[in-house]
Structures are given as structure tokens and as C-alpha cells.
């Protein structure tokens, strides 16, 4: 299948490359040509003065982008897709109370089939937000993989081991069996958190890291009480303690990273770790504001995640991008703290790298066709003074005109093109909710 997206503005996210008028040619799942138009053809908001064929390239399907923006899809670098049934069930509580009183009891009753359907519901929301891949940590991971395959969405799963459920050897099994070339599903080592995993289990997880010489991801330093508890148990903060066990010898990263010491930051640098910030969830749960400016000063890569639909509660990347820069400005008392262009890089390139999706970073020849089209002909995007600033500061889900994953359009013009109809997904989730809650 050869697809042509023409008459577009293109933001490749390649370092130093500005937005330009042009088109993309896609063969099956990959970008095969990036064509740049003569800039003299740009008039009155349209990329070509005729709106017709400019390059002469042939295709099985040609889509006139009407002067709208093509860019790499956002990568949701931390989420729990299967928690969608818990949305707005348990709100306005501190994290530990929220987990132990409301979330864990319901999760104990969930089946793999429940999580299959709840994950599909989250994917629908990802598509409307321009998200083309998620870094998912949850239970029943084979059912999550089946769900993502069936709906055609790209998913990197991460180990969710803790003392209440998933067995330690499961992450070893998943790592060895869900990293096939070309697959929509892949897997990275990880576990839930230090405070939900006993010392013996932590040592076993560290041994698996050493066995595969692989990176690892984990929730860490999300709340003050979490950090204080780890110091009380082991005499070290979570990042420093886990590093002492050899958890980060081959890289990886942490989710949240809100309450960080100087020593933590030094470990992050030394071990070449990244941090995935989740400002919406951290704001709602009053966990705090992550030191994003400090990470950037130390060249610690920052990626962005929504966290789960039970703690956020929405899976909206435009809100997350605004909060990343807005909260950083408040924290530093400096309106210039984080530039919008840097935030866009976090949402695309940095998040893709955190997820080991190195062929989904930019709009370049050979990269996967995980592409979104943003509608610039909406009031919130006019006038067109600076498109990148508009995306972060005034953009919203209403601007997502198209979401393509692996060369397949799954959402366009407010219509889903998924194998399972949205109304069937909504019906199944309502049935599950009725049984679980």
C-alpha cells in the first residue's frame, strides 16, 4: 500500500529543521520519501496554490492535507491503559489512600478479558489526542498485547511486578517473548515501585537485569512519603537504593521523579537514566512539581506521560504538554524556564527514545509512519505566527485531524477506523464496570 500525504506543512522533529511545505510518501508501514516544495508555492494558508499534485508522485491513496501540519505522533511514555474503568471512581484523595482503599481492591477482581476491553477504550482516547504509542505498565500483559494487536496500536509494555500479583519470572518470560522485529508490541524490564516490592523480590529483579544487560523502568520519587519510607527502610532514597542493587547498570529510567535529591540527580546522570514526567496526575494527587529545569541543565532526558486514566483522569497530551512548561515556570518563578519547542521534543523524540522506539522518532525516510495531522484551520491555531508554540500553549484535541499508526489511519475527522467499533467497546466497558464496581 502506497499512501501520499500532500499539500502539507511538515514538522519532522529532526534537530534544527524548521517547518516546511511538502508531502510524505508511505510504503506500507514506513516513510519512503519526504518531499520539500518550493516555498514560493505557499500562499494564503495553502501549501500549494492549486491544491493539486505538486511532486507528481503516484499512490494507491492520496490525501490532500489542505495546508495542515504533519508531525510525528506523540508517545505516551507512562500510562496504565487498563485502568480506564476506574476513571472518576476514586478522586480527591492522597496517593496511598487512593491506591489501598479504592484501586487495589477493584484490581484484585479484574480478569484478562476486562483489561483487554479497558485497554481498547484508552486507545480510542489516545487516538483523539494524537498519541501513536504508549508505554504501558499493568497486569495481564498477554491480554494487553492481544488488545493492542487487535486494535492496531503500538504499545511498549513494561514489567509491573509487585508483592501483590505478577510473579518475578514473568518479566523474564515477557522480555524474551515479546520483542519480535516489526511487531506492534514490545517489552522492557520493570516493576511497580520500591514501596510495593520486598527486598528479596528486588534482588531477583536486579538479577534479571544483569542476566539480559537490559534497561529497567520503575515508579520512583513520586511523593515525599515514598522517599521518606525508603530512607527509613534502607537508609537511601529510592533512586540511590535501586542503583545500589544494580537495577540501573544498563540504563532505563524512572516515572515521576518529583522529589529528587542532589545525589539522585547525580545517579541519573551517571547511569544515563531518563525521567518520564506526569504533571497532570502529579497535580491532581498533590504529589508535587518535578524539577524539569534541573533535569535539562544536567542533560537528563525528559519524556512525558499521562499516567493512568484513574489518576489523571484524562489521556490528553495537549494538557500534559502545557502543564510541563506551565508548572516549571511556576516552580522556577521564571516565565522562560521551559521553551515550548523543548516540550514538543519531550513529547515525541524523547518519549520515543525512552520506549526504545528508535524508528518512530521523526518524519524521516525509513522511520515508521506513526504520523498525526493537526488542523491549523481552527480558531485556536490562528493566526499562524508560530505553529510549535501554538501546539503547546493553545493546541487541543480538537486540532487532531488524523492519527496514523504503522501506516494505517485509525482516526480521521472525528471518525475511528478501528477493527472494533467504539460503541461496542463502550458497551463492554459498561458491562465490566457493572460487575467490578
Describe this structure in words.
- This protein has 437 residues and is of the alpha/beta class.
- The protein is 36% helix and 21% strand.
- It has 14 helices and 17 strands.
- Helix 8 links the parallel strand 11 and strand 12.
- It is globular, with a radius of gyration of 21 Å.
- About 3% of the residues have low confidence.
Give a nutshell description of this structure.
This protein has 437 residues and is of the alpha/beta class. It has helices at residues 95-107, 112-128, 141-151, 168-177, 199-212, 224-234, 238-244, 262-270, 279-284, 292-297, 317-332, 340-354, 387-393, 422-436; strands spanning 2-10, 20-27, 30-36, 61-64, 69-72, 74-79, 131-136, 154-158, 185-193, 216-220, 252-256, 273-277, 302-304, 371-374, 400-405, 408-412, 415-416. The strands form two sheets. Strands 1, 2, 3, 4, 5, 14, 15, 16 and 17 form a nine-stranded mixed beta sheet that branches. It has an eight-stranded parallel beta sheet with strand order 6-7-8-9-10-11-12-13.
Amino acid at each position: 500500500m502506497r499512501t501520499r500525504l500532500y499539500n502539507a506543512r511538515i514538522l519532522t522533529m529532526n534537530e534544527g529543521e524548521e517547518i516546511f511545505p511538502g508531502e510524505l510518501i508511505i510504503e506500507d508501514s514506513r516513510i519512503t520519501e519526504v518531499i520539500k516544495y518550493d516555498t514560493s508555492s505557499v500562499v494564503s494558508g495553502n501549501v500549494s496554490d492549486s491544491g493539486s499534485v505538486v511532486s507528481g508522485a503516484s499512490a494507491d491513496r492520496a490525501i490532500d492535507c489542505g495546508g495542515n501540519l504533519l508531525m510525528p505522533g506523540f508517545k505516551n511514555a507512562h500510562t496504565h491503559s487498563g485502568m480506564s474503568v476506574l476513571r472518576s471512581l476514586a478522586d480527591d484523595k492522597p496517593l496511598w489512600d487512593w491506591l489501598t482503599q479504592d484501586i487495589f481492591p477493584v484490581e484484585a477482581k479484574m480478569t484478562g478479558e476486562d483489561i483487554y476491553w479497558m485497554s481498547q477504550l484508552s486507545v480510542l482516547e489516545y487516538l483523539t489526542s494524537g498519541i501513536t504509542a504508549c508505554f504501558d505498565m499493568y497486569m495481564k500483559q498477554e491480554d494487553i498485547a492481544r488488545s493492542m494487536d487487535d486494535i492496531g496500536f503500538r504499545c511498549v509494555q513494561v514489567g509491573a511486578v509487585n508483592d501483590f500479583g505478577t510473579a518475578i519470572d514473568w518479566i523474564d518470560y515477557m522480555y524474551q517473548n515479546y520483542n519480535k522485529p516489526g511487531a506492534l508490541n514490545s517489552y522492557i524490564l520493570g516493576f511497580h515501585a520500591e514501596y510495593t516490592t520486598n527486598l528479596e523480590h528486588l534482588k531477583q529483579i536486579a538479577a534479571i537485569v544483569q542476566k539480559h544487560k537490559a534497561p529497567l523502568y520503575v515508579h520512583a520519587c513520586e511523593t515525599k512519603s515514598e522517599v521518606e519510607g525508603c530512607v527509613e527502610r534502607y537508609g537511601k532514597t529510592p533512586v540511590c537504593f535501586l542503583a545500589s542493587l544494580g537495577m540501573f547498570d544498563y540504563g532505563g529510567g524512572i516515572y515521576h521523579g518529583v522529589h529528587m535529591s542532589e545525589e539522585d540527580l547525580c545517579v541519573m546522570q551517571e547511569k544515563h537514566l531518563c525521567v518520564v514526567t506526569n504533571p497532570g496526575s502529579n497535580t491532581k494527587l498533590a504529589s508535587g512539581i518535578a524539577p524539569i529545569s534541573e533535569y535539562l541543565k544536567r542533560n537528563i532526558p525528559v519524556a512525558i506521560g499521562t499516567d493512568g486514566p484513574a489518576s489523571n483522569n484524562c489521556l490528553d497530551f495537549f494538557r500534559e504538554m502545557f502543564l510541563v512548561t506551565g508548572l516549571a515556570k511556576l516552580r522556577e518563578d521564571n516565565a522562560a524556564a521551559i521553551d515550548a519547542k523543548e516540550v514538543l521534543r519531550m513529547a515525541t523524540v524523547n518519549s520515543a527514545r525512552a520506549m526504545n522506539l528508535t524508528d518512530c522518532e521523526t518524519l524521516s525516510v525509513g522511520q515508521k509512519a506513526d504520523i498525526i495531522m493537526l488542523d491549523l484551520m481552527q480558531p485556536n491555531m490562528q493566526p499562524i505566527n508560530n505553529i510549535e508554540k501554538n501546539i503547546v500553549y493553545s493546541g487541543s484535541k480538537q486540532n487532531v485531524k488524523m492519527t496514523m499508526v504503522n501506516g494505517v489511519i485509525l482516526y480521521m475527522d472525528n471518525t475511528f477506523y478501528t477493527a472494533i467499533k467504539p460503541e461496542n467497546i463502550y458497551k463492554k466497558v459498561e458491562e465490566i464496570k457493572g460487575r467490578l464496581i
